[in-house]
Amino acid sequence: MICEQKIADAFRNVALRLELALDEGRRSKRIDAEDLLQTLLALADELDPPVPDNVPSDAGCPKCGERDVDQLVWLDDESVQCSRCRTTYRPDAEP
Questions:
Q1: pLDDT tens track of the chain, all 95 residues?
Q2: Which of 10, 59, 60, 70 has the fewest CB atoms within 10 Å distance of its CB?
């Protein structure tokens, strides 16, 4: 459950970012539906924990177990290199 302090902090963080954008001229002081939507989405991003984007466990790095898609780089149509430990492997190969 989200605590009240976290909710208050999320509102403060989003409000500070909006205030900065107004001060820098990147946002208009007039609000429309798009502005409201962006603000609500920013609040949701503040309150939701990040969702990792992982490959299935059997497609992760066989050496270090890395599964984060941002750390696994396709080299060609068959091979992947793990940015964490530099292991090159074929995800579809049998162990």
A1: 568 888 899 999 999 998 998 899 888 888 888 888 888 889 988 888 667 789 998 999 999 999 999 999 999 999 999 999 999 999 987 65
A2: 70
* Exposed / middle / buried, residue 68 (Cβ in 10 Å: 0-12, 13-18, 19+): middle
Q: Whole-model pTM?
A: 0.47
Residues 6+ apart with CB under 8 A from 57: 67
Residue 31 CB partners (closer than 8 Å, separation 6+): none
Is residue 53 within 8 A of residue 21, CB to CB? The reply is no
Burial category of 16 from C-beta neighbours within 10 Å (exposed 0-12, middle 13-18, buried 19 and up): exposed
- Please tell me what DSSP assigns to residue 83: T
Six-digit token pair at 39?
A: 């603000």
